[in-house]
Design goal:
The complex is a heterodimer of chains A (300) and B (401). Chain A is an all-alpha fold and 300 residues long. Helix content of chain A is 73%, strand content 0%. In chain A, α12 packs antiparallel against α15. The longest helix of chain B is centred in the C-terminal third of the chain and has 16 residues. Classes of the chains: A mainly alpha (300), B alpha/beta (401).
Chain lengths: 300, 401
């Protein structure tokens, strides 16, 4: 770094510049907000002290407060249900579709491309469309179910606290499936055909080939898709804002939405930060799994 | 900052008659879009006062508090802004708003005694007056007179009490025709508090005294509306505007909402719609209603307090126009000549006398949240109305003290 122009020639200084640019970017845009957030979670912060560093430290009060609220238990449980069900459904449907489009039929690639439409739509638009479908009194889904004779009574998908979380999950699965499918399609395409042919010659059936060839060779992709799925699902905010606002009565509230509510509706910003710090810990764990699964990929 | 101070200094030294017509710039934040109140008024004011330039900026209503707090923190706040009335105490308690009382005392145009008690309370904090209401609104009971007649109810005698409201809702509910008796909003946001608090206030309670038998009775009645399907379960996640939309479409026979509905209702509702005062718990009970709309306030760090107040005076002076031109009620004693929708106006104008402020409290958002939580947990059956209100009271007492 002392003489960047001269070391440009031997290429070593250039490496360092690249590293420092990346590192600088990460420090400014990732590390600083992260650390700032952690600090705020130990302070008493309201709207008007947001910009100053001189705020009273309150130790673990914020954590104590958010962990002992009546709503905490239900929100943590909702978050777990939301993540597990969303990721499981996104993965299995996405994988099934990827396998389906792997069969080379006319128009397969086109149709697969069209599936991405759901992925590129803004979350609020998706939420708006699903709120039409799931509306209680005049929703499309209720009309369909009643016409088909599945149910006589209207189902209040969004305003019944025992159902509202599942409504958001349905919409979230719809949003996440295309991404899962594309990523897994890429992995499937990378498996050489001759392995399957050899296995077929040896007498391995479809199911056996799937279990002994496809699954093991897709390990890295599956690991990556699952960890990314968990991270994306933990970031899912728009659908909650558009469909239920976490309600009724926290029936569909999850930690990411709660953190925003605490910070920007109640203006208990320290507590909102505490919730997001707890979430960061979970995401770090998931990210570690993701890094491990991609490292495996590079080694292979 | 330094340049501005320098300029101000030079201006003071050079102060002479030649500089009397010095250009004044005022920054104004509003929730209006071009063509609405603040834009129209600012244009008229600038045309009449060429030395004043008003720079308007539209801020979305839900973002106003956040944006304003951020602007104050970075020293970039406007001179004048609109604030929703329960938030005035939030800013005033932190010394961020200019106390207008000395200006009002000296003013020939603004007389605090002419402002209705509810709106005046919403801008008062700790002995000071920190804003001037730009108008007001309140809620009342809209009803479909045709449905009343069809159900054998007298359309000239709308429900006066809670019991009558309940009975009417029962008679008017027709599940086979997709008609609910009543539409209102128990949404888990400020709208839920806005709709519920008047019911508590009619029974003698208020935001800081909410675990009362009266409040419990109100919440139990709300729960009956939902449980007996006299109102849609979607009431829990729907705002007033969407709820009243179902009334306009003929899917609810009555609706509780405010005057902002009238322009749309007069176009969409294909029936004889009328308005009545919000029913009271018993015939002798005192009336109450919600107080909505917001206030024009001046930020404490403005460079142009006189010019800013002069514009506020102009706004106040045009209070008689707000009903016909902008769709809300005057917040002070003025005569509205030839009001549009005269029957509805008469009801809302009377209702305005009973409109009560939410708060004031510097921590209103937290109090409101506690009330919303109580409403929602009781209506979903997670807690009994009494328990839900007791828990809200506990939270609110913590916040207030």
């Amino acid at each position: 770094m002392s003489a960047p122009t001269s070391s440009f020639r031997d290429g070593r200084g250039f490496d360092r510049i690249l590293v420092w640019i990346t590192l600088g970017f990460l420090i400014v845009f990732s590390a600083f907000p992260l650390v700032y957030n952690v600090i705020m979670s130990f302070q008493n912060v309201d709207l008007f002290t947001l910009a100053s560093f001189d705020r009273p430290f309150v130790g673990l009060d914020n954590y104590d407060e958010v962990l002992t609220r009546n709503a905490t238990q239900i929100i943590v449980r909702n978050t777990a249900v939301f993540v597990v069900l969303s990721v499981a459904a996104q993965l299995s449907i996405g994988f099934a579709l990827a396998l389906f489009f792997q069969q080379r039929f006319p128009g397969a690639t086109w149709l697969r491309g069209l599936f991405l439409a759901g992925w590129i739509m803004p979350g609020l638009v998706v939420g708006g469309v699903w709120s039409f479908i799931l509306a209680g009194d005049f929703g499309v889904l209720n009309w369909l179910l009643q016409t088909l004779g599945v149910t006589d009574d209207k189902i209040f998908w969004l305003s019944d606290p025992s159902k509202s979380l599942y409504s958001v999950i349905i919409a979230n699965v719809w949003v996440g499936v295309p991404f899962n499918m594309i990523l897994l399609s890429v992995g499937l395409a990378a498996i050489p055909d001759d392995i399957y042919e050899a296995a077929e010659l040896d007498g391995a059936g479809r199911v056996w080939r799937f279990l002994t060839i496809t699954l093991p060779l897709m390990r890295a992709q599956l690991g990556a898709v699952i960890s990314l799925g968990i991270i994306f699902t933990l970031q899912q905010f728009d659908l909650f804002a558009a469909l239920t606002q976490g309600g009724p009565s926290n029936g569909s509230n999850v930690m990411q939405y709660w953190s925003w509510e605490l910070s920007f509706q109640d203006y208990r910003i320290g507590q909102g930060s505490a919730v997001s710090v707890l979430m960061i810990l979970v995401v770090i764990g998931v990210a570690a799994i993701y890094v491990r699964s991609t490292r495996h990929e590079h080694a292979a | 900052m330094t340049i501005r101070t320098l300029l101000a200094g030079t201006a003071a030294i050079a102060a002479s008659p030649a500089f009397a017509q010095e250009q004044v710039e005022l920054d104004l934040w509003t929730i209006d879009d071009p063509g609405e109140y603040h834009y129209v008024m600012a244009e008229e004011y600038m045309a009449a006062n060429p030395e004043v330039t008003i720079n308007l900026r539209t801020v979305q209503f839900p973002d106003m508090v956040n944006d304003l707090a951020r602007a104050i923190a970075t020293g970039d706040s406007p001179d004048i802004t609109y604030i929703d009335n329960p938030e005035v105490a939030l800013f005033a308690s932190r010394g961020l708003l200019m106390d207008l009382s000395p200006y009002i005392e000296a003013s020939d145009i603004v007389n605090a005694e002419d402002i209705f008690p509810g709106p005046l309370a919403s801008v008062s904090y700790d002995g000071g007056i920190y804003g001037i209401p730009r108008g007001a609104n309140t809620i009342a009971l809209y009803y479909n007179a045709d449905m009343f007649e069809a159900a054998g109810l007298d359309p000239d005698a709308p429900p006066q009490t809670w019991d009558e409201l309940y009975e009417a809702a029962k008679v008017l509910t027709k599940p086979e025709d997709n008609v609910y008796g009543l539409a209102f909003s128990a949404n888990g946001n400020e709208e839920g508090t806005f709709q519920f608090l008047p019911w508590v206030q009619m029974t003698g309670g208020d935001y800081d005294n909410i675990a009362t038998p009266g409040a419990e009775r109100a919440l139990t009645l709300w729960k009956a509306f939902i449980d007996e399907r006299l109102a849609s379960p979607d009431t829990l996640i729907r705002g007033q505007w969407d709820s009243t939309g179902t009334f306009n479409a003929g899917n609810a026979a009555m609706s509780i909402s405010g005057p902002w509905e009238i322009p749309r209702m007069s176009e969409e509702a294909q029936f004889d719609w009328r308005v009545a005062l919000l029913p009271v718990p018993d015939t002798e009970a005192e009336r109450a209603s919600a107080l909505g709309e917001g206030d024009n306030v001046i930020l404490a760090n403005t460079d142009e307090p006189e010019a800013a107040f002069a514009f506020l005076e102009f706004l106040y002076d045009n209070m008689d126009r707000v009903w016909n031109e902008f769709g809300y009620l005057p917040a002070s004693e003025v005569e509205v000549v030839d009001p549009k929708f005269p029957e509805a106006y008469a009801v809302f104008e009377e209702s305005m006398q009973y409109a009560r402020n939410r708060g004031p409290s510097p921590d209103w958002p937290q109090i409101s949240k506690a009330v919303q939580t109580a409403i929602q947990s009781a209506l979903t059956g997670q807690a009994t109305p009494a328990d839900a209100l007791a828990e809200a009271q506990e939270t609110i007492s913590d916040v207030v003290n």
